[in-house]
Amino acid sequence: MIARSRRTVAVGAGLAVALVLGVLLSAAVGQLSIAPTEVVGAFLEGLGIVTPWAPAEDVTYQALWQIRFPRVAMSVLVGAALAVAGAVMQAIFGNPLAEPGVVGVSSGAALGAAVAIVTGAAVGSVASLALLAFAGGVAATMLVYLMARANGRTEVVTLLLTGIAVNAFAGAGLALMLFTGDSAAREQIVFWQLGSLNGSRWNEVAVVAVLGTVGIVAALALASRYDLLALGERTAAHLGVRVERLRLVSILVVAVLTGAAVAYAGIIAFVGLVVPHLMRMALGPAHRVLLGASALGGAVLLTYADVAARTLVSGAELPIGLLTSLVGGPFFFWLLRRARSRAGGWA
Amino acid sequence: MTAAIHARDVTVRAGAATLVDGVSLEVRHGELLALVGPNGAGKSTLLSALSGERALAGGLVELDGRPLSAWQPGALARERAVLTQDNEVAFPFTVAEVVAMGRSPWRGRPEAERDDAVIEESLVRADVAHLAGRAFPSLSGGERARVSLARVLAQGTRIVMLDEPTAALDIRHQEEVFGLARALARAGSAVVVVVHDLSLAAAYADRIAVLDRARLAGLGSPREVLVPELLEAVYGLGVRVIDDPDTRLPVVLPRR
């Protein structure tokens, strides 16, 4: 137990350092290369603290505060939200393969956002777009929950097949939106499907920050109940957990987090699968630690993924969703193989 | 004195089938009641009705004189603990963590100060202290059953319900688990155990309830209930009831 808590501190500190370095790096690299000292200087200057490190030219300051900083903030928030959403889904399904992207919650939320964009509901209001993304996320999560559960447990096959169905339906909806939308709307929808943090603005960051914080705090508050849920829903109920209510609240939490992430960043899959899994292997399955570490780990992963997306190909920007899927797909294969060899079949 | 468990005309239905039909019984504090009967007789269903897990189609269950519907989930979890038959844990929690979960109903209360001592004691009593650091999914069936029993012990309730706690255990651990159940009863708890082994029930239970096709076919001391006529009618098998040479308690053997 002592070894594990020491490990928790070490991993937490490591992730925090990695996050700070990643944020600095992410703000420094790009078409306009900026020294890390200037990044720190500009950041402090924006807070009203003038230091010798403040950038000499105003254009640097403007680039950082108008383009780079909101984008970095968005990557941190979206990564944390997606990783926590994944951990919560795994807790309520009692299954380590549940993930918003895989089971179709992300595409449900993206469909909601696409409807908002095409019908013009999003015009002039970043919040209405988030609202529809949230509604799409709730609908998709509910659907998966109702379809994939039988006799109080979720079979892997059913869960994944439900994901296929939900993804297919949401894909059809997105295609319809592509078909009916004008070219500007189309471009935006295509970017959603690929996932991108490009062009993040402060008002969008604010929406994601509020929703993400609400969702993560709610998830942390439920952490000890998620531990009990691992004993099975009957035993959890015998220990005083109101299981149905916990599930319902958790579905809303997942939808809030996924909706927040998807509304402006599009579908960035596998973050919710890879991050909680690695954290569970490193720190054990107890949810208070797992959820906190996942938030941090998700932020780290997406910050570096965004750096990679911007720098891997010179002169162009890769969609970040493409990158996470590139890494997440093989990881998912590995998980499936392991689950199969352990359980001796598709249980 | 108020009975720990008071069941009156308890009826449970699932669709058209009646799983438990008008069962009335009482369990007092300090008493161990064994629930026996053939497969499908409704033992586990009756237990889940007594625990508050299953809704009743008719009748009434009171714990400590209060109807189940009047209990808040948290308060109920501090009053009665349940060991179910399926002992699965979804993620690789350690044995110590699983047993500690049994203390969760006491969080934020003065009793929580004793958490560590109770967990330690429960691990020892269920003979799983040596497994404390192991991941639950890596355990054998018998080890899982005993760890789950330790979790129930850690819950520290005055009413304990065990659904076939010995199904996966070797004979030494069977005896130990029933010895433990009787020790709980002697310490003042009301204990209900579903069990198939009639001789085991006879050796440890104060009273035995025999269920047959959803109804109560017999209720009384082992000597009163474990008689060939009743058992043959219920199980449809010829049996011989002999006395244990040491304890003078009935031992049930099939006629072969």
UniProtKB/TrEMBL annotation, chain A:
Q: Which InterPro entries match?
A: ABC_BtuC-like, ABC_transptr_permease_BtuC
Q: Name one GO cellular component term.
A: plasma membrane
- In Pfam terms, one family for this protein is FecCD
- The membrane spanning regions, by residue number, are 72-93, 105-123, 130-148, 160-181, 202-223, 248-275, 287-305, 317-336
Q: Main subcellular localization, coarse class?
A: membrane
Q: Does the keyword Membrane apply?
A: yes
**What keywords are assigned to this protein?**
Cell membrane, Membrane, Transmembrane, Transmembrane helix, Transport
Q: Which GO MF terms does the UniProt record name?
A: transmembrane transporter activity
Subcellular localization is given as: Cell membrane
Membrane-protein topology: Multi-pass membrane protein
> Superkingdom of this entry's organism?
Bacteria
Please cite one Gene Ontology biological process associated with this protein: siderophore-iron import into cell
Q: Which family does it belong to?
A: Belongs to the binding-protein-dependent transport system permease family. FecCD subfamily.
The protein depicted here goes by the name Iron complex transport system permease protein
What is the organism field in this record? Answer: Demequina mangrovi
> Lineage in the entry?
Bacteria, Bacillati, Actinomycetota, Actinomycetes, Micrococcales
From TrEMBL, chain B:
Q: Which Gene3D superfamilies match?
A: P-loop containing nucleotide triphosphate hydrolases
Q: What top-level branch of life does the organism fall under?
A: Bacteria
Q: Which UniProt keywords apply?
A: ATP-binding, Nucleotide-binding, Translocase, Transport
Q: Does the keyword Phosphoprotein apply?
A: no
Residues covered by the ABC transporter domain: 5-238
Q: Which Pfam families match?
A: ABC_tran
GO MF terms on file? ATP binding; ATP hydrolysis activity
Keyword ATP-binding attached: yes
Matching entries from InterPro entries are given as: AAA+_ATPase (IPR003593), ABC_transporter-like_ATP-bd (IPR003439), ABC_transporter-like_CS (IPR017871), P-loop_NTPase (IPR027417)
Mind telling me which PROSITE patterns this protein's record contains?
ABC_TRANSPORTER_1, ABC_TRANSPORTER_2
NCBIfam families referenced in this protein's UniProt entry, alphabetically? PRK13548.1 (NF010068)
- The protein here is known as Iron complex transport system ATP-binding protein
Source organism per entry reads: Demequina mangrovi
